Amino acid sequence: MENLSEQQAEAVANRVAKKTVEELLQKLGMDTEDVREQQKDFAHLRQQRQAAEQVAAWSKRILLGIVISGLVGTLVAGLKAGLNLKG
């Protein structure tokens, strides 16, 4: 193969990279011709991930609230029993 100029080598590398990426995306089941739909799909996946993260964060907060409420209730019941208070 003859010596390629820098521009020619870059053009060859770009063509090979583009073809490789397209083949990979096709193997993953993506339509490489309809870029807008792929963008919409990825945006939807991002929304789903963010929603799942929010649910996880709220679940942790609620669980922590339940634990703290139980501890406070136990403490109050123990104090009432220790001081012989009715109520």
Describe this structure in words.
The protein is built from 2 helices and no strands. Helix content is 82%, strand content 0%. It is rod-shaped and about 100 Å long. It has 87 residues and is mainly α. The protein has helices spanning 6-27, 35-83.
How do you describe this structure in short?
This protein has 87 residues and is mostly helical. The protein is 82% helix and 0% strand.
Rg over CA atoms: 30 Å
* Residue fraction in strands: under 5%
Form type? rod-shaped
Q: Given the helix and strand composition, which structural class is it?
A: mainly alpha
Largest sheet: none
Helix proportion: over 70%
Order of helices and strands: HH
Query: What count of helical segments does DSSP give?
Result: 2
Using brief descriptors, characterize the structure shown.
87 residues, mainly alpha
Q: Secondary structure elements and their pairing?
A:
Blueprint: H1 6-27, H2 35-83
